[in-house]
Design brief:
GO terms for molecular function: zinc ion binding. With 87 residues, this protein is mainly β. The protein has no helices and six strands. The chain binds zinc ion (ZN) (2 copies).
Length: 87
């Protein structure tokens, strides 16, 4: 049985195994998003609604541009939860 290919949580494209030359540690790389992820971090958390938490970018003054995961519902959805996790 083949191991399922991990997919990028942001663009759903298959990710590629990548060994960091500096540390020799395995990572998954998405060439579409140009992001590296530690293999253990490829699991996407669910928000409190049970939806896949969406990757967002912080726009607050203190953490401008920092990535985090928030509720999977649309920002305009008033029923969204206050799930929050730094990515
Ligand atoms: Zn991607
Ligand atoms: Zn939610």
């Amino acid at each position: 049985m083949a191991t399922p290919t991990p997919v990028c949580p942001d663009c759903s494209q298959p990710m590629t195994h990548f060994i960091a030359q500096s540390s020799g540690r395995p990572y998954m790389k998405c060439y579409d998003c140009n992001i590296l992820r530690a293999e253990r971090d490829t699991r996407i958390p669910n928000c409190n609604c049970g939806m896949t938490a969406k990757l967002r970018t912080s726009r607050t003054q203190h953490n401008y541009g920092r990535k985090f995961r928030g509720c999977g519902k649309a920002v305009s959805d008033t029923t969204k939860c206050d799930f929050f996790l730094w990515a």
